[in-house]
Structures are given as C-alpha cells and as structure tokens.
Amino acid sequence: MSDSLRRGFRLRSSRRTVTLAACAAVIAALLAVAALAPLPVVIVAPGLTADVLGADKGTPVITVTGAPVRRTSGQLRLVTIEATSPQASVHFGDVWHAWFDKGQAAMPRDAVYPSGGSVQEIEKVNQREMADSQTAATAAALKEMGLSPAKVKVTLRLADVGGPSAGLLFTLGIIDKVDGDGHGGDLTGGRAIAGTGTIDASGRVGAVGGVPLKEQAARRDGATVFLVPRAECADAKAQLPSGLKLIPVTTLDNALSALSALRTAHPTPTC
C-alpha cells in the first residue's frame, strides 16, 4: 500500500473513530437525561386496611339507626394502596426498583390521580368519590334487605381513605350489621375477609385497579379470603399471596352467595 493510500485509510479510520465517539457521547448524554428526567408515573405500595365492622379512631365505621343492629364477629376489611404524591418527581431508577420489588409498582399518574389538579383538588375529588360510593353502598344494602331509606339511616365514617373502591365492603358491612346472613348468624362466618370493588345502587360491582398490592395488604393484616371484581381476575391471580383464597364477584348477590357457600363449606367461585 502506497504512503498516500495509508494516509487516506488512517484519515478515514480516524474520522470514523471520532464519529463513533461523538455518537457514543450523545447517546450517553441522552441516557443520563432520561435517567434524571421526571416521569409521568407514581410508585404505589400496599396501603392501610380497615375493618368496616369495627371502629376508626374510636368511632364506629358503620352506624345504623331506625333498625335493630346485631353484634358481629369476624372482619370485613377494605383495602387500599398508598402512592407517592402527584407532585413528587419519579425517575427511571425508581421505576426500575419498583419493577423488581413485589411490594411496589409503577402506575401512570393519571390512573391514580385525576390529571391537571392540585393536591387540594385531588383530595376533594377523592372525598367526593368516597361520599358517592358510600351513598351507593347504603342504597344497595337497604335494597337487598328490603328496608326503606326513609326509615333507616346509615352513617359511614372512615378517615384518611378516599375514592370509590370500598363500595362493596361498605355494602356487606351494613348488611352484616343489620341482617347478618339472614338467619341471625355472621355474614363472615367469623373469618377475616377482605375485598375491593366499586358498587352502584343496583348492586353491580366494578373494577378498581391495584389489586395485587391490595391483596398483599389484606394478607399482611390477617385476611384469609379476598373478594375481587371478576374483571380483575387475571391481575389478582398473578401475584396471589399464599394463604389468601380468591373469590371473584360481579354483583352484590354474587358476593352474598359466595360468602354463604364459604360458611357452609360448599364450593365457591374461582377465577
């Protein structure tokens, strides 16, 4: 190879090396920016649970006037998830960590919090959804028991919990407080039963999200049975904790029938 050809080869090789180095530097810079840039997600984890048949901060969760109230045993535990603040900065590293931690998950911010609102506005939305859920739960329970809302008043009090996902458990709690299993016995059969699901006044149960983390919270706090909207069976089965029996429901009647089967040792629905 002539000297001129060698110089040309070295020149092209040198330019290629410089180009590759520049590209690598740009890619590294982009990756660094991506790793440090905040993402539109929140990190969620198992939250608190509460027995709707019990008390919250010394006040009964469910108070009924205008109808006899029975003493209950067992538990009906609503479950929640806790999430990072909607204004918190979540980065790639946080999502990476949550990916490998079964006790955490990354979810789109808009799936957890209403978009475009301040913290105060979000809290108002959550409280309004909770109030609407309690109204629907009361209506569904009284309808199931054949009681008139003009004569029977139900008050539901639970601090630090928002959103509509406790509807099913509130409904079951009201029924257990007033009517039990319909024959004077506990609706729960003395078990610690947890669950999640919205409910409307006609008794239809709706999906809520975050089920795997809610199952962890339920099992952590002693539940052995978990009621889940049937539409979320796939998520519920994916990370079902050991010792927690999963029962899918689509309506209030489904839930009552399943609990009856559980008390009498009959087969219950499965996902």
Describe the structure.
It is a single chain. The chain is α/β, with parallel strands linked by helices. It folds into two domains: 1-37; 47-81 and 114-263, Ribosomal Protein S5, domain 2. Helices cover 42% and strands 20% of the residues. The chain has eight helices and twelve strands. It has helices at residues 3-36, 92-100, 109-112, 119-145, 167-178, 211-220, 233-238, 252-263, and strands at residues 41-51, 55-56, 59-60, 62-65, 75-83, 105-108, 153-156, 192-195, 198-199, 205-206, 225-229, 245-249. Helix 4 packs parallel to helix 5. The longest helix has 34 residues, at 3-36. The N and C termini lie far apart (74 Å). Its EC number is 3.4.21.-.
Q: Tell me, rounded to a whole number, the average pLDDT.
A: 84
Q: How many beta strands in the DSSP annotation?
A: 12
Taken from the alpha-carbon principal axes, the silhouette is globular
Q: Helicity, in percent?
A: 40-55%
SSE pattern: HEEEEEHEHHEHEEEHEHEH
Low-confidence stretches: 28-35
Give the N-to-C terminal Cα separation: 74 Å
Class derived from helix and strand content: alpha/beta
Query: How many domains comprise the coordinates?
Result: 2
Question: Radius of gyration from the CA trace?
Answer: 26 Å
Query: In percent, how much strand structure appears in the residues?
Result: 15-25%
* Largest sheet report: 6 strands, mixed
CATH topology call of the largest domain: Ribosomal Protein S5, domain 2
InterPro entries: Lon_proteolytic (IPR008269), Ribosomal_Su5_D2-typ_SF (IPR020568), Ribsml_uS5_D2-typ_fold_subgr (IPR014721)
GO molecular function: peptidase activity
Protein name: S16 family serine protease
Keywords: Hydrolase, Protease
